[in-house]
Amino acid sequence: KAGVTQTPRYLIKTRGQQVTLSCSPISGHRSVSWYQQTPGQGLQFLFEYFSETQRNKGNFPGRFSGRQFSNSRSEMNVSTLELGDSALYLCASSSGTLNTEAFFGQGTRLTVV
Amino acid sequence: GIQVEQSPPDLILQEGANSTLRCNFSDSVNNLQWFHQNPWGQLINLFYIPSGTKQNGRLSATTVATERYSLLYISSSQTTDSGVYFCAAPTLSGNTPLVFGKGTRLSVIA
Questions:
Q1: With the CA atoms of A11, A67, A71 and B91 taken in that order, what torsion angle do they form, in degrees rounded to the nearest 10?
Q2: What is the reported pLDDT for B94?
Q3: Shortest alpha-carbon distance between residue A80 and chain B (Å)
Q4: Of A53, A62, B47, B80, which has the maximum CB count within 10 A?
Q5: What distances in angstroms separate CA A31 from CA A7, A108, B26, B94, one per listed residue?
Q6: What pLDDT band is residue A96 in, cutting at 50, 70 and 90?
Q7: CA–CA gap between residue A66 and residue A46 (Å, rounded)
Q8: How far apart are the first and last CA of chain A?
Q9: Which residue in chain B has the smallest CA separation from A47?
Q10: B36 to chain A: nearest residue by CA?
Q11: CB of A45 closer than 8 Å to CB of A112
């Protein structure tokens, strides 16, 4: 059974650009959650998608957005990149029912210069 | 929402030593997970343990939900155990799938 796949693994972007990250969950899983990890703030929840709908949202500005497709793959987009957006972005896959185990992808390391 | 605190923040061990990592949470939990973050950044699942005790090789975990803490035990540590260990739990309302602690950075020296 394939795990959670995130692409790309590494990304370098310039301030002001936008970026799209992709996450393919474990087959059969319907929930995808996104997290940002920085040295200063640790791991913070961005948003969760379930059955193509945003189910929950963390405390991030509107420049951060996402979507989920009918095959449960999810993308997150960050517009007008800032230096502070440099981080490791992790996505988690779960079945989507409450209190089930989440599994993480390898992450996308974004550097904004 | 729930607050998750981990201790100690840093731990240095000689290879072969045992250790206990602690995770305290501020609210009742229906779900708690322990992860090991490898040097490449991936979070590796160690335990899904809302309550009780589980063992997997040299690692074991215990969650005492009524007292709001969980412990991760590492026995006979190896250099490959080095890395950052996180515990995480969801909010009771479910509006945040996982709230993470700040982690324990473990260094095992040969």
A1: 100
A2: 82
A3: 25
A4: B47
A5: 18, 19, 26, 13
A6: confident
A7: 9
A8: 37
A9: B96
A10: A104
A11: no
With beta carbons less than 8 A apart as the criterion, state whether A84 and A72 touch.
no
φ, ψ of residue A85 in degrees (nearest 5): -80, -5
Across the interface, which of B40, B94, B98 has its CB nearest the CB of A106? Answer: B40
Q: Is B91 on the interface with A (CB under 8 A)?
A: no
Contact (CB, 8 A) for A10 and A88:
no
Q: Which two tokens stand for residue A102?
A: 């989440």
Check CB contact under 8 Å for A104 and B100. Answer: no
B103 in A contact zone (CB under 8 Å): yes
Are residues B96 and A56, on separate chains, in Cβ contact within 8 Å? yes
Residue-level pLDDT at A1: 63
Q: Hey, are the CB atoms on B98 and A100 less than 8 Å from each other?
A: no
Beta strands in chain B (DSSP E): 4-7, 10-14, 19-25, 33-37, 43-48, 52-56, 59-64, 69-74, 83-89, 99-100, 104-109
**Neighbouring residues of B58: CB distance < 8 A, sequence distance ≥ 6:** B74, B75, B76, B77, B78
Mean pLDDT of A38-61: 96
Determine contact, residues B96/A58, Cβ cutoff 8 Å: yes
Report which of residues B29 and B84 the model is more confident about.
B84
Q: In whole numbers, what is the pLDDT of chain A averaged over residues? A: 96
List residues of chain A with CB under 8 Å from any CB of chain B: 31, 33, 35, 37, 42-45, 48, 56, 58, 88, 90, 92, 94, 98-107, 109
